[in-house]
Specification:
The chain is α+β, with helices and mostly antiparallel strands. The chain has one domain (2-104): Glutaredoxin, CATH 3.40.30.10. Helices cover 35% and strands 19% of the residues. It has five helices and six strands; from the N terminus they run ααβαβαββββα. The strands form three sheets. It has a two-stranded parallel ribbon with strand order 1-2. The model has no long low-confidence stretch (mean pLDDT 86).
Length: 110
């Protein structure tokens, strides 16, 4: 998550026309504390029962947690991009993600 935070301005147009929502099975109280302490600019949601993970085929039943799937939903509400697992240590993953976000929510030039 730190990579998302550290690249937020370039990856997600600094939040202009983009909403980033991280979903995990962690309790909301733990997420709130962690997000505050680490200064995350994105939103977090708790999926303690795995319902969202199951809906998006991101649930790992063996370990009872959501996997590292990444979805980009376009302005039309449809999934425009999906990768599972998201390779968070690979720089090319962020280049690819930025290109998808830019194609859906281009930065307006002055």
């Amino acid at each position: 998550m730190e990579a998302y935070r550290d690249q937020y301005a370039t990856l997600f147009n600094n939040g202009r026309k983009v909403v980033v929502l991280a979903v995990s099975v962690d309790p909301d109280t733990a997420q709130l504390s962690w997000a505050h302490d680490a200064s995350f600019p994105m939103l977090f949601a708790s999926d303690s029962g795995g319902r969202v993970g199951r809906m998006y085929a991101a649930w790992d039943d063996k370990n009872k947690l959501d996997d590292r799937s990444l979805y980009v939903v376009g302005p039309d509400g449809r999934i425009a991009y999906h990768v599972s697992p998201f390779r968070q240590l690979s720089p090319s993953s962020y280049t690819e993600l930025a290109a998808v976000v830019d194609s859906l929510a281009p930065v307006e030039q002055p």
